[in-house]
Amino acid sequence: MNQITATLGRLQTARTLPEILDAAYAAFEHIIAVLRHHQQQAGAAFPAFVLAAAAAGNGRDDIADAPSLARAAVPAMPGAPDLMAGASIDDAAFALAELSSLLDVRLSAGAATTASQADRACCEHAAQEAARIGELLGWARQP
After folding, report:
1. Predicted TM-score (pTM) of this structure
2. CATH fold of 3-76+85-140, please?
3. 13, 117, 118, 143: which has the highest count of C-beta atoms within 10 A?
4. How far apart are CA 116 and CA 97, in angstroms?
């Protein structure tokens, strides 16, 4: 199981807002790492990879500002990142588009259920960035 698959699982099973935020922060970090690793080989998709990495950085920063994020979760991504090095550009983009779609759904749900205006704004902004990643990488749809 790679980190993208593990992060998908964490997002799916997260129940509380702090759990969702923690998983979302890790997801954005993984997305950035994979996009940066693959962008030089992306050919015509290079601009999409660069813009998606920027959106992931913005989403990560939005999550970092959320008051309900457990501060211990923010500083580091444990271990070496799994960069999907053996994956094709299409497969990497598809996996990241799938992850960003789930990020959008979970963060939007988190925004809708929190009483905290600050958490809601952070979740909404991060969800918009996740949706942007999905738009940028949507060309990689699998049959």
Report:
1. 0.89
2. Ferritin (1.20.1260)
3. 118
4. 29
